[in-house]
Specification:
Protein name: Heterokaryon incompatibility domain-containing protein
Keywords: Repeat, WD repeat
Pfam families: HET, WD40
InterPro entries: HET (IPR010730), Quinoprotein_ADH-like_sf (IPR011047), TPR-like_helical_dom_sf (IPR011990), WD40/YVTN_repeat-like_dom_sf (IPR015943), WD40_repeat_CS (IPR019775), WD40_rpt (IPR001680)
Number of strands: 42
Organism: Suillus luteus UH-Slu-Lm8-n1
Oligomer: single chain
Number of domains: 6
Low-confidence stretches: 484-493, 1121-1166
Shape: elongated
Radius of gyration: 50 Å
Length: about 1200
């Protein structure tokens, strides 16, 4: 039996899904179909019109399974996420919200015959659901990975296909009644026959068969059905129970006859089918799969001239003069009434004239006179002509007995029979006969190919007339492929065929070629049509070409226009490969228009075939030199090929074409583009803005050269990325500043080095004009470290690097001042800060960072809190702790080690923002650190506090620190920096001489809980008048902010006169002098200081006036919206790359700023009286005090102490001395 030929052309397709079709089901009313897809939707279709009635949405994952109840009232669908939805069968509206039915995807669903229960199968279990309540019935049934569930027609059994076995359950009792192996692996699909007497199962790739099971014994019936080569996804049985369809991932739907298990048809998909079902009437098969559509298929029902000797009549037939041939043969018959041969020959002539009655009459007469080969052949031909196929077969069978043992005649007889059967529309039988003959008799191959060509031309012509274009093309292609060079066909052995059936061999093959071209063209396959045309022109000779010249020119013109139009459609759909092929076809067919070349260039640009697009663009310019289009395409091609200089030059030409265009409309196109000079200015503005927050000079990590900003810009402009940016931006309708900023940022970003100076380091003068990579610099101390830093920065993807050793001209005071004041900003805006730990060896354990000398240096505080990204390196330039975190600020272990070592909280390390708020804590960070130049301990804090001050090396630490603290108090009013112990500064006695005075943690006094405050307020109200409380509140409310002027501190405070100072024995023999101090309104206290105080008491007074003061802090008012004044708040976008230096440096507030007017609306919004009493309670708590001694000029000086002075009032009801004191 010959091999089945797959059918590739369905009757029609249903197309609306955007992804693969996984499930399909038809409704009992025959009018509708529902499908489920990986696009997460279901579609409800009208089967008659092919229109989608409703797109059903609701699933959050791909739809894997669906079923329709037997009455068509309910649709159930399951998805890959385990979701289940019930839908109304008529309207397609959802009956339920998505139900989380399974943890894994739902592979199969099926309704019980009465529609009251739905079975769902998943890789986790099987469940049964009530279709009234949509609640699960009972517990899940655990039976393994479920691939398919199917109720028997009676509903008495439920078959379950799992990975390993087939299980049969009684759904009523949930009892497993049978379990058996089934397939070798994976029982993939199931189907019951309508009478329930058979169950079919489909296997996986390892066993791609269908097996038939007898439910009475659960034994396999017959042999497995073989044919598929991969997973059998679905099995369907027609309503009559006689036919079976199966869909497999081998891209085939196979059609079987159940009675003999024979494969009787194959339908081939372009991608594997997932599902198949029969129409309700069983006349069609519907299959869907990975091609995103549902295909509908029809179910089919199931030589030497020994015949015509060379005579005058023969020649008449050969020339087509049938009337003469008939006349001559009639004369022969009149001459001899028993001339059975002439009767047979005249029958042939009558058949040529389609006079079938006369032909049959002559044939019957011939065999009645004398049975012969010729007589029965003529009878067979005539009977076929009249449609009497069965009788014709008998005639040809009888003819075969006259062949004797002549193979050539036998072959000819079979070919004649085949052709006659074609005339009787028995095409399949004829084709089968020819193929069997060719297989059995290689000697007959030439004739078989000849007849096969004829048969295919006939079939193709019929299909073409019925608009079955793909089928027609297949037949004509088969005809062309079956043919051989024409000269080989013109053989005397087969000349009888041309005489019997009026064949023109040359015209036959030319017709096959032409109709093949037409079939492809009519089917919309213009490229195939062109391919067929070119094949034809190569195959035929010059005379044949001349004979079809008119047809050829018309075909080329028509095909060229369609190719161009289809190319436009493909280009619009971004199908660039197809567009290129179509435009190329149009050009091959002599269509050389500007539009076609331009569009092919666009398609090639779409495919990024830059160099291939360039000739087409150049062709457009040649065809229309005045148009800008060719130059636009040429620019795009050159740009894509990274020939940016040429691209920009071409773009300039394009602009000139637009500028000089004769029509205004074209000139207006010019407004869509920028001149390169405009883009260059825009890029330069972004560069300048970026460099405002970058170091003044950096090292090129590739060349090793030191570059200033202009050198950086020049290097950037020479790079391909700059030219690409310029070339691409000119074509845009806007400047696309975001992309410009991104490219500039990426090219100008730099890495910073944080390290500890070790002896002599490379200076600017050492490397200026040289590459740090040059061997002649090997003798320069520290060069190895500098080179390794540059290489590490380059390895991290950064073009530029900065080191404080060689990137600052320390001989230039202006540059030095700028660098010191900008360094925090530079570190913050760096893309990466590399921290080099020269004393941490490879493979060090956690803790080495904490003990590194790097952690003792003053400048390194800002160097690790300012940057966004830092990486610590050991002395061999490997990552510390081998921590591969992209940013060590995100490494919990490293940040914790930093916190433990420095006392700096993680939040400050990760997201620090400059501020003068909380100055005491920041000063504490630096209190244990050292710098080579003593002034640097203050200068290194400029950026942390967000101040800019002159740099004056030689002023000493106390003046440098004094200026910094003076600026903080003057601008922010923050006096936490006055909380120190140690030695006073010569700059101002209220300030320390050294940063080490901040080593002790900030003085932290306990705060009262709210309930205790409330209790104390209640007590005060009984003993203190409201006026007293309001008076204190008002005075303090209107105090001016602390301020500095000419090194004098104007400090708002509450003063307490000291009445007695007596020296007492100190418990610490190494301590300085300790004095007992009594002050009006305060509890007695002890003060330790290195200063010698004049002792006095009431009986021994002194002229020197000493007071204890409580510095006034506005926060004690506890105003509801009390916050740091806006000018001291950190910029909200501090962490963004778009910050400017002004984001950090805010103008100072007036030193005489009156805080009393900051909250005018609050006077009526809150209970001032209550706040006044609460203030008294807070004033009654311990406080940090200063001891001040009045000078002869009336001002005061602070007496430094070794420990915090903690004071406490005796009685808050006593009057208070509230004033501003000037301190030297």
């Amino acid at each position: 039996m010959s091999q089945l030929v797959p059918s590739t052309t369905p009757l029609r397709t249903f197309e609306d899904h955007e992804d693969a079709v996984r499930a399909v089901a038809v409704f009992p009313n025959r009018r509708r179909m529902v499908t489920g897809s990986y696009d997460k939707t279901l579609c409800l279709w009208d089967l008659e019109t092919g229109v989608v009635l409703k797109k059903m949405e609701g699933h959050s994952s791909e739809v894997w399974a669906l079923a329709v109840s037997r009455d068509g009232q309910i649709i159930a669908s399951g998805d890959a996420g385990g979701g289940l939805i019930a839908w109304h069968g008529e309207t397609g509206e959802s009956l339920t919200k998505p139900i989380k039915a399974h943890f894994k995807g739902i592979s199969s669903v099926d309704f019980s015959p009465d529609g009251t229960v739905l079975a769902t199968g998943s890789r986790d279990d099987m469940k049964l659901w009530c279709t009234k309540t949509w609640q699960m019935q009972g517990e899940p049934i655990y039976c393994g990975d479920v691939n398919c569930v199917r109720y028997s027609p009676s509903g008495e059994l439920l078959a379950v296909g799992t990975t390993n076995n087939l299980h049969i359950y009684n759904p009523g009792t949930r009892e497993r009644v049978a379990s058996f192996k089934g397939h070798a692996n994976w029982n993939y699909s199931l189907a019951w026959t309508p009478d329930g007497t058979r169950l079919l199962s489909g296997g996986s790739k390892s066993d791609p068969t269908i097996r038939e099971w007898d439910p009475s014994t659960w034994q396999q019936v017959g042999h497995p059905w073989e044919g598929h080569t991969s997973y059998i996804n679905t099995i369907a049985i027609d309503p009559t129970g006689t036919l079976v369809a199966s869909a497999s991932t081998d891209n085939h739907v196979r059609f079987w006859r159940l009675s003999d298990r024979r494969n009787i048809g194959i339908f081939e998909h372009s991608a594997w089918p997932n599902t198949v079902t029969f129409s309700v009437d069983g006349r069609h098969i519907l299959s869907g799969g990975e091609d995103k559509k549902i295909s509908e298929w029809a179910v089919s029902k199931g030589t030497h001239s020994k015949i015509l000797p060379v005579t005058t009549a023969y020649h008449a037939c050969a020339t087509g003069d049938l009337s003469t041939a008939e006349h001559l043969l009639t004369q022969d018959i009149h001459t001899d009434a028993n001339d059975y041969t002439s009767y047979a020959h005249r029958s042939f002539v009558m058949a040529r004239k389609h006079n079938w009655d006369h032909a049959l009459e002559d044939a019957i007469k011939s065999v009645s006179i004398q049975p012969s080969l010729t007589g029965y052949i003529s009878k067979g031909i005539a009977l076929c002509g009249k449609g009497y196929v069965q009788e014709a077969r008998a005639a040809f069978d009888v003819a075969s007995i006259f062949v004797k043992e002549d193979p050539a005649t036998s072959q000819l007889l079979l070919l004649i029979k085949a052709i006659a059967l074609v005339n009787a529309d028995q095409h399949n039988e004829a084709m089968l006969l020819v193929k069997e003959l060719a297989t059995a008799s290689p000697d007959a191959d030439l004739g078989c190919r000849f007849v096969e060509t004829y048969l295919n031309v006939q079939l193709g012509t019929k299909a073409l007339g019925d608009a079955r274009l793909d089928e027609a093309a297949d037949h004509f292609t088969a005809a062309v492929n079956a043919g051989a060079p024409l000269s080989k066909f013109v053989h005397e052995t087969y000349e009888d065929l041309t005489l019997l059936f009026d064949w023109d061999l040359e015209a036959l093959f030319l017709t096959a070629h032409q109709k093949r071209c037409q079939a492809f063209f009519s089917a919309g396959k213009s490229l195939k049509a062109l391919e067929a045309y070119n094949y034809m022109m190569d195959a035929i000779d010059e005379s044949a070409k001349a004979s079809c010249l008119v047809w050829s020119n018309a075909f080329k013109q028509e095909c060229s226009a369609v190719c161009a139009a289809n190319g436009d459609a493909a280009l619009a759909a971004s199908d660039y490969d197809r567009a290129i092929d179509l435009y190329s076809a149009a050009i091959t067919l002599n269509s050389a228009s500007t539009t076609v070349f331009a569009n092919r260039s666009k398609a090639k640009l779409g495919k990024m075939l830059w160099m291939e697009a360039l000739p087409d663009a150049q062709k457009v310019i040649e065809l229309d030199s005045l148009s800008s289009l060719g130059y636009k395409l040429k620019h795009a091609a050159l740009h894509g090929a990274q020939r940016y200089d040429e691209a920009i030059q071409t773009f300039q030409t394009m602009l000139s074409k637009l500028d000089n265009a004769p029509d205004i409309q074209t000139q207006q196109l010019r407004q869509q583009y920028f001149r390169p000079s405009q883009v260059e200015r825009a890029i330069r503005q972004v560069i300048d803005a970026k460099l405002e927050n970058a170091p003044l000079r950096v090292l090129d990590t590739t060349t090793g050269l030191l570059c200033d900003r202009e050198a950086q810009i020049s290097a950037f402009k020479s790079r391909t990325e700059y030219k690409e940016l310029l070339s691409s931006t000119v074509m845009r309708p806007d400047l696309d500043t975001e992309r410009i900023e991104e490219v500039v940022r990426r090219n100008l970003q730099y890495a910073m080095l944080s390290h500890r100076w070790e002896g002599r380091e490379p200076l600017l003068q050492d490397i200026q004009g040289k590459s740090v990579y040059e061997s002649k610099l090997d003798s320069v101390c520290g060069m190895t470290k500098l080179r390794s830093f540059c290489k590490t920065a380059r390895g991290a993807g950064h073009n530029w690097a900065w080191s404080d050793t060689c990137c600052i001209d320390k001989t230039n005071n202006v540059e030095l001042h700028e660098s010191v004041n900008s360094m925090f900003v530079w570190y913050h805006h760096s893309a990466l800060t590399i921290i080099y730990l020269s004393d941490v060896p490879p493979s060090s354990k956690s803790g080495a960072l904490a003990t590194s000398a790097w952690n003792t240096r003053g400048w390194t505080v800002q160097e690790f809190i300012a940057p966004k990204i830092i990486l610590f390196y050991q002395n061999n330039w490997t990552l510390y702790l081998d921590d591969r975190t992209p940013n060590h600020k995100e490494s919990v272990e490293i940040v914790q080690e930093l916190k433990n070592a420095t006392g700096i909280d993680r939040s400050a390390v990760v997201a620090f923002r400059p501020s003068m708020h909380g100055a005491r804590e920041k000063l504490h960070w630096a209190s244990t650190r050292v710098t080579t130049r003593q002034e640097d301990i203050a200068y290194s804090l400029f950026g942390i506090f967000g101040v800019r001050l002159p740099v004056d090396y030689g002023e000493k630490q106390d003046y440098a620190l004094g200026r910094l603290l003076q600026e903080i108090v003057a601008r922010s009013g923050d006096i936490t920096g006055l909380d120190w112990v140690g030695k006073s500064s010569v700059f101002n006695s209220c300030l320390p001489a050294s940063i080490t005075s901040y080593k002790a943690p900030p003085c932290q006094l306990p705060s009262l809980p709210e309930d205790e405050i409330q209790s104390l307020v209640s007590s005060l109200r009984k003993t203190v008048t409201v006026n007293f409380a309001l008076n204190i509140y008002t005075q303090l409310r209107h105090m001016s902010a602390p301020r500095f002027a000419t090194q004098r501190l104007h400090l708002p405070c509450i003063a307490f006169d000291v009445k007695e100072v007596r020296r007492v024995r100190s418990p610490d023999p190494e301590a300085h002098f300790t004095y007992g101090v009594k002050a009006d309104g305060l509890q007695d206290l002890l003060i330790t200081t290195e200063e010698t105080l004049v002792q006095f008491w009431p009986a021994r007074p002194t002229e020197r006036h000493i007071i204890l003061v409580r510095p006034w802090d506005l926060s004690l008012l506890k105003l509801p919206d009390f916050a740091e004044p806006a000018e001291f708040m950190e910029s909200s976008d501090f962490q963004h790359d778009t910050e400017s230096e002004e984001d950090y440096w805010t103008p100072p507030s007036s030193p005489s700023h009156d805080w009393s007017d900051d909250y005018p609306e609050q006077q009526d919004a809150f209970d001032i009286e209550s706040r006044a009493f609460r203030l008294l309670v807070r004033l009654g708590q311990p406080f940090s005090a200063f001891l001040l001694a009045q000078q002869r000029s009336g001002e005061y000086k602070r007496i430094a102490s070794d420990h915090d002075i903690i004071g406490r009032v005796n009685d808050i009801r006593n009057p208070m001395d509230i004033r501003t004191i000037e301190i030297l």
